[in-house]
Amino acid sequence: MKTREPMVIHYVRDMDRATRFYREVFEAPVLFSSPGWTELDFGSIKLALHILGHDMGENPIPHAGLNFMVDDIEEMQARIESFGGELSELREPDDFVPVRVASVRDSEGNGFELRQEP
Known about the structure:
CATH topology: 2,3-Dihydroxybiphenyl 1,2-Dioxygenase, domain 1
Order of helices and strands: EHEEEEHEEE
Number of strands: 8
CATH class: Alpha Beta
Distance between the termini: 38 Å
């Protein structure tokens, strides 16, 4: 069986803020938007933002392992911070991981990584 349309889902508390974060930081086109579900186009994958229900805990599912390859981590850091996110750690290439890796939190606290070739 062939799979298609890979999607990563992030759970959010504020749909407008989260949508703005990914739309503005990554210039990702919005494919669909509603109060409870938004899809953004990241080329070969979709990022879906799903509003948290009142009965769901603080972290309803584990981190999904979202990663973005970028040309300039420092440039992206400024964009991320201007839309309410934060970069918490920057690791330089080593024998195990041959790229720069930045750990990031989006405007809703979801973790993801930026990667940059040296």
